[in-house]
Amino acid sequence: MKCLIIGDRHVYIDTYDIYLEQRSALLSWLRENTDIDFIVETGDFFHLRKTVSKKFISDVLQKEFEFFTELKNINPELIYYKILGNHDILSENMDSLLKVFNYLDNVEIIDHTKEVDFSYKHKGVFVPYLNSLDSIDYKELENITSNLDTKNINILFSHNFPYFIGGNDIVLPKKVLNKYQRVFLGHYHNYIQKDNVVIVGSTHQVRIDEYNVNKYVFVYDLDTNQFTKFELPYTKYKEIIIQNEHDLQAILSDPTKREQFEKDVRDNYVILKVSDLNLYNQIESSFNVVNAHLKLDQNIIDNTLDNLEDGESDERLLNIEEVVTQEVENKIPLYFSDLTEQDKEELKNEILQIIYQNLQIPHKSIMDKQLVFDKLELKNFIIADDITIDFNELKNDLYFVKGLKLDDVKSDSNGAGKSLLFVKSILYCLYGKSRLVSDKQLFNERSGYVKLTIRNNYTGDVYEIERGIKKEKGRNKDKLVYYVQIFKNGVNISHKEKQATQKIIEDEILNKRLLTNLYILDGSSFTENFFNLEPSKQIEFLSELTLLDFIDTVNETLTEILKGSNKKSSDNSLGILGKKEQLQSQLQLLRTQLEEENEETIQKQMTEINKQIEIYHKEKQKQLEELSKEAESYKKTGLQKKQELQIIQQNLSKLDHNLKEFLQQAKISILSHIEKNVDSIENIQNKYKNLQDDYNKQLKEADTKWTAYYNNTNSKIQKFKKELNEKIALISKNKATIQSNNKLIQQYLNKIKEFEQKKFKEGDLCNTCKTELKGNALKNANSYLEQEIVNYTKEVNTLQEQNVALENQIPVLEADIRKLESLIKEGEDRINTAKERYILKKESLKNEFNEKGKFYKLIFNYIDKVNNIFYNFSGILQYPQDIVGLDTVISDLNNQYNKLQQDILKGKELYTNKKSELDIIHNKYAAIINQINIVKNQENPHDRSLKLLKRSLDVVKQKREQVKKLEKELTKIIREETKIRLLLDIFSKKGLKQKLLRRYLNALSNIFKQQILSYGSGSIEFTERNGKLNVLLYHRGKLKNFNDLSSGEKVRYIMAFHESIAILFQKIYNLSCNIRTYDEILANLDTIGTSEILKSIRKAIKNENIKVFLIDHTGLKDIFNENIIYVCNYNNKVHYINNKENFIAWVYPYYRDNKILNNEVKFYINNLLQNIDNLDEYVKNNKNNTLEAGPDLMQIF
């Protein structure tokens, strides 16, 4: 089983011809090679999918459709797999124009990760382009890969970078790729094979940097796991080589060659290779080479650089600014020809501005970091309680920092706190670290700080860096918190996170390597020899020390500016080359369009259309004249018809008038006949009125009688009902009273019974009670009870009598009620009977009235119809039959009416016919008028074409203007490109950096030789020692054996080396280290060695204007005449005293009270005091300068 694998095709306007050639060649090849089972295209069929015309895309898709149709004819079983690349995808949801082919049965568009079984033992996995959002497809790939059957031959096809190339999006890892027998990848344009991975590459040179890269297609045999690659001949780049002046003149002198060359250099795909910049400048001045790609022979640049190596010994070649400026001046003529001196100067300043401002090389950044230490404050730091060191008060250039332990007999000056003040505290404040001391030992009261005040001499900013420990309230108890904070000009610029605040200190304030004002040299570190290091280590050390690693950053920055950033969010993501390519593409597209849209052709078309417009106007005028004649004819006929219609209308009006007169006369005739044969209308109305009044009078009398009877009878009934209700209520009341009385009677009977039971009898009492009841007490008690019984008995009898009376009254009341009910019923029956009679009377009166008034009503109704004769003539035909002769009158009138109606109908019919004829004529006239308006308003069909041509002409002019504008922009961008290439030339990794490092290494060696000889010059003994040192030295300062040197020689070597570093740095950047702290460098030196080292230090102070703090623990007897900073330790408390006078005033009380136990210290103080006449007065005068001792801290440590 075999498959054909095709790489990225990147079809675009400028590669369309290549696409057609490859398409044709592929079909021919497949006709001859019929053993191909399927084809895989690895993605990026399109190139710039969003910046091409719809017509171009439509043409390409049509060509592909025709290709797939022909492919099916060649081999119906063959499947074509198209993987979507990043250039094919229009959106994040994998939309693509190529999906239009999904409906074809021989094409499959791969837009998601999927498995395909090629045969029972061959399995393929397809993966489209994955960006950082395609986690679903990537997880699917991992899932498929983890479940692969190893018995099968598994092949992966994808449009993604492998692990060994990398990219901005998802990269296929090695652990995934290793699971497949073979992997074929698109996306990367150059062919690469690594292990089982084959990067197919593109089918032609897509970018300029591919112009000499071979391109291939592949036939892969799945059974043998072997592939064969076939080289493709297609290229869109043309290479023109001009080696010398003779080649250029041969082109310029031959018109044909010159014309072809001029066309070529305007082409967007020409590689112009010249061996000399002067040749290129001549070409640029003679031709428009805006779109040609310049390839300058690298040998020219190398030779030029070799010529610049003259004058290596010049110290100016060490200064970074002067070196860069010189490089720019030398490179400008190579890249920009025919410039005036003024132009060269302006261009130089422009390029230097890019270097020093945009690229941020140390020129400015070091100047920004010229820091000066103003003040150091310690609070409870290790064994320092409350100390402030004001560096501005220390006016001398050299200070000996001496330590004195007053209360320790065995100790020397070590351990007093010298390094604590001048090394540990500063390092801890700046970096949060301190040598040989744990964090728990830093603050002796679990609360304290170190504060360092730093002033920026360049900007004037003042920084306060404070680092310490403090108590904060916790949930249950207080807790200790380490903190760091920064104040800039009094404003807190710290971050909540300590690491972020530390980054501000190191990057914004110190920048570690750029802190040049403080130099700490530790005597315990004199073990390493720089000149015995490997060259690579020496270069690495010098590169970091002299800040030349910035060149690597500059090179990356320049490359990013040139080629663009890989960061999608970057403003410079396109880069100068990308912008240039974009402009060139736009220019090429515009020029192609301008070739198709010729102005002369458009003008000819406009002339032809103007002729057609003139012909059209003549024909239109002729048509309007014919229509106007026809309209005038219809107008004349219409006027005649209108006059006839008006005559008919007048006749109709007369007939209508006659009809109204007839109806009026008919009305009069009928009413006259009625009055003549019946009575006058007035008499008839009066008779009917009298009849009606009599009826109303009788009806009213009946109403009055009925109302009077009803009211009288109903009044009596209401009276009986009231009396009835009263008697019913009285019966209810009597019954309630009887019931209440019965309850009281029962209560009274119960009381009587109770009192009967309470009576005392003689036999009922015991003897005790009898004796206690004396006199008539018993008798009186029984008498009271009997009286109560009598009273209650009377009440019972009264109530019973009342009940009897009430019960006797009830039957009487009930009899009255029955009588009243009978009376009420009788009254209601009488009312009902009277009402019936009343209703019958009213009905009788009504019938009588209707019967007597019937004739009059008929007369009145008919008179109403006669009065309405104008609206309803047929109403008079229903006349009263009792009127004599009325039928003859009505019949005669009806005949006359019908005759008038017939005449009117005939007139209306004639009017309607004439009106229809007039409407037809009017409509025809209106139609012609409308047609005339249509013809008048009709747009000339050629006007639109003329407008389109004018617009096309305007577009062509706009495009020409746009071409000029783009050419200017392109010229500007090429100038920018040339400037960046010039800078890349200067800052290339094998250019300026290596050159400077070689210079710096040579300079460091020479400076070191001078320094090692100058340390201690003037002493015979030291000179002899120095001679020994010189014997060990050879070329470039290397030592045969560093350990062969004595301690003093090692010190002088290291001092000389570090002094050489400082001198070199000063020569490079015009900067020097203004504060140097030497920590115990004089240890283990004899007196002569110490003296000579001090002389060398004083010499450096004089020559370099520096301040030196020499931390030392040599004997006190040797330093009576030196500037001394005393670090005194008493009772494990450290004190800082900045001069001898303050020290005497501070130490005298301890000396006087015999608290100084160290004999050496006591001897030193004794010698000091001998020179003072009045100690009490001396101490009093210097008392304000003394520093009181703090509390005892021994219990903490």
Number of helices: 29
What is the CATH homology-level superfamily of the domain at 367-452 and 461-526 and 534-552 and 993-1185? P-loop containing nucleotide triphosphate hydrolases
User: Which geometry do the CA atoms define?
Assistant: flat
Low-confidence stretches: 290-314, 512-516, 1016-1040, 1185-1197
Determine the CATH topology of the domain at 367-452 and 461-526 and 534-552 and 993-1185: Rossmann fold
Mean of all residue-level pLDDT scores: 79
Biggest beta sheet summary: 6 strands, mixed
Estimated helix fraction:
55-70%
Strand order of the largest sheet: 4-3-2-1-11-12
What is the number of beta strands?
27
Integer-rounded radius of gyration: 65 Å
Q: Would you state the CATH class of the domain at 367-452 and 461-526 and 534-552 and 993-1185?
A: Alpha Beta
* Fraction of residues in β-strands: 5-15%
User: Based on helices, strands and strand pairing, what is the structural class?
Assistant: alpha/beta
Give the CATH architecture of the domain at 367-452 and 461-526 and 534-552 and 993-1185. 3-Layer(aba) Sandwich
User: How far do the termini sit from each other?
Assistant: 83 Å
Coiled coil: 580-758, 782-837, 883-910, 946-976
Pfam families: Metallophos
Domain Calcineurin-like phosphoesterase: 1-191
Keywords: Coiled coil, Plasmid
